[in-house]
Specification:
This protein has 432 residues and is an alpha/beta fold. It contains 11 helices and 19 strands. Helix 1 crosses helix 2, helix 4 runs parallel beside helix 5 and helix 5 packs parallel to helix 6. Bound molecules: zinc ion. The site of zinc ion has 5 residues, from loops.
Length: 432
């Protein structure tokens, strides 16, 4: 076995397998090729001195599934680069593509082995996803939507009606159900993994009709694509749940009755408190004017979202964990991907173990890899991180990659650019 397939063995350490089971002492986690072969005693046929075997000693360290961020925007053109000049970052697709690739690499180096991208510009995310998959560049597994399907008055409908939504826009205007269906087909043709719709920015008014959402859901599902929707408001959240979307982003103004509708359908919610927390922190640091967002409104949304987290946990609604990294210049890649876990623990009533499960096992849903990643067990794809600190004792050690010893994605030890990963550990396997 070991002679034929490159084998990576993680010895010792404490295993947090992502299932929610108690942390336990690890003897040997054996990775053969790009999958986990065994967890437990070292199999007798694996000889550590064999040529095809590499060993990581994790004594005094913690082993867990790679983090998944269910809410990253690689191609909005952020953060602005020093010296990049004025103008929106998404008006130059060539530069923007390179920035997106660099952002993906930063996320991976911070221990994020999978990201979902609910909205982008052009088909940049599809390109970056394929570049990662084909080994052109290094990055997390990417599961992406295209431009958000919007109608007049929705978020990202920022230009006057006579301009519409230009090619570089984050949203694409579709003002009838028929236009929305055509856009689903166009995006499917260009290789998106799922469809993102978006209702109003703040949720005060419902902009999309339930029938329009249902039309998109029917077309997408027939083509085996899932649908996510940006919905802060009560009406749009209820309409989205009844129309059968696959997950709801934000939902912070949902009423108790709306949440019951969501719970009944078994739809997960991706609250994304990290972005709100960041706006509030930046507003206090550099002033609300500089942030160019309504900080007081964000504070109200944050309070609502904390209540939503608590109620969802009580009602059995699965929460997905996401940061909204890359949606603004103060949302850099590589820094914020695990902040939602801290918010779940500090405000949402979650235990550190529940927060870890949310960021790993539960978040595998956002990659549509529920049976493949997010949990460490035999047969799963080998996306693993090793930490120098205990995340159950302090959930913040997951943030920014500061306590990472190793990042392993698809069975391959990732060079984090810090000189720590010896090249001899770096097997490469097709992502498939
Ligand atoms: Zn977003």
């Amino acid at each position: 076995m070991a002679k034929d397939v490159a084998t990576l063995v993680i010895r010792n350490g404490t295993l947090i397998d992502g299932s929610g089971a108690a942390a336990r002492r690890n003897d040997a986690l054996v990775i053969a090729g790009n999958r986990i072969r065994s967890i437990g005693p070292l199999p007798p046929d694996v000889r550590l001195e064999d040529e095809g075997v590499r060993v990581i000693d994790a004594t005094g360290q913690w082993i867990m599934p790679g983090l998944i961020d269910a809410h990253v925007h690689l191609s909005y053109g952020y953060p602005n680069l020093p010296g990049e000049g004025r103008g929106r970052g998404n008006t130059r697709p060539e530069l923007n593509t390179l920035k997106a690739a660099r952002g993906a690499q930063a996320a991976l180096r911070a221990g994020v082995t999978g990201i979902a991208v609910p909205g982008g510009t052009y088909f940049i995310d599809v390109g970056v996803r394929d570049a990662v998959r084909l080994g052109v560049i290094e990055g997390p597994r990417i599961h992406c939507a295209g431009r958000m399907i919007i109608a007049y008055g929705c978020i990202e409908d920022d230009d006057p009606s006579w301009v519409g939504s230009p090619d570089h826009s984050i949203g694409v205007l579709c003002n009838t159900a028929a236009e929305m269906v055509t856009e689903v087909r166009r995006q499917d043709k260009h290789g998106v993994n799922f469809i993102k719709m978006a209702d109003s920015r703040s949720g005060t008014t419902q902009m999309l009709a339930k029938e329009e959402i249902a039309a998109v859901v029917a077309e997408a599902h027939r083509r085996n694509l899932r649908v996510a929707i940006h919905s802060r408001g009560a009406g749009s959240t209820r309409a989205a749940a009844e129309a059968g979307v696959d997950w709801i982003v934000h939902a912070d103004l949902a009423t108790e009755a709306d949440l019951e509708a969501v719970a009944k359908k078994g739809i997960p919610i991706l609250p994304t408190a990290t972005f709100l927390a960041r706006v509030i922190a930046e507003g206090e640091r550099i002033g609300a004017e500089q942030v160019q967002l309504d900080v007081d409104r964000m504070k109200r949304h944050f309070d609502n979202i904390v209540t939503l987290m608590q109620r969802s946990r009580e009602m059995g609604i699965h929460l997905l964990c996401g940061s909204d990294s890359g949606n603004n210049t103060f949302m850099p890649f590589g820094e914020l991907h695990a902040n939602e876990a801290e918010i779940l623990v500090r405000y949402g009533g979650f235990s550190p173990m529940e927060a870890i499960v949310a960021c790993t096992k539960n978040n595998a849903f956002a990659l549509r890899l529920e049976e493949e990643v997010g949990e460490l067990k035999p047969g799963r794809l080998a996306d693993v991180i090793v930490l120098r600190r205990d995340p159950l004792a302090d959930i913040t050690v997951l943030q920014g990659g500061r306590y990472l010893a190793w990042v392993i994605k698809n069975g391959r030890v990732i060079d984090r650019g810090d000189g720590a990963a010896p090249p001899k550990l770096a097997f490469r396997h097709a992502e498939a």
